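Human:
I keep going back and forth on a fold encoding question. Comparing notes only helps if you start from a blank page. Show me how you would write down a chain together with its backbone fold. Write it directly below this note and I will take it from there.

Assistant:
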Amino acid sequence: MPAQTLTALITGGTRRVGLAIARALVGCAAADRSSNEKPNTTLILTSRDPDSTEAQNARGVLKALGARVELERFDPGDSESVASLAQRLKEKHASLDALVLNASSYAPTPLRQLTSDNLSDFMTINAFSPVLLVEELLTLLEKSTLPGGAGIVAMVDMHVLGRPRKDLLAYSMSKAALLEAVRSLARELAPKIRINAVAPGVVAWPEAGKESGEAFRREYLSRVPLQRAGTPEDAAETVRWLALDARYVTGEVVRVDGGRWLA
């Protein structure tokens, strides 16, 4: 019996946690590879540069797993890019089953270096664009035929739940705004669409800056009860569950932090 057809959009889905999420979703609705069926999982991944080697490699990995893959150009810092992406998707697809709001911006912004411009940039990328994208794609999401309806998952951060970190003011404000948007949208979108959030601790270390160094990592992990970092796959499995299987869950946030919240 063929598996359920799935069409999913993952912003920033060509690398790191975004790519892990895409891989987790493939296994939920992949066609029987021993048959002649075409893949019944369509993954739409956004990137600022869909022609890059990184994006093309992600496409190859996911196609090898049995998915149909579409790469779309998207800049979450540009409101016109939100509308343009949504219009292209509405021309190509009749419905959308899952939307993962993963693309984001992360960098230190100490108070004495904070400007209205970089504060606005963080809010636009991490909060405004995700909400506007939901609004633009509402008609596609409402047409999902999944048993629990379409599922939206927003990636936030466990530290914006009451464990603020120093020098990340703009980032933290923007992710906290996104979390509150999730809760508000849960009321707005019910009963046809569910929306939840995943709040990771460390599941992928930053690639540059002091947080990429060994000393910082040791100090951070000393406060994690499980005494280790998570993996992109840890976050991805939680996203998969919320998007597809948690049919009676909406407006919730799930921490994936190894117990860091407790320490």
About this structure: Confidence is low (pLDDT under 50) at residues 29-36.
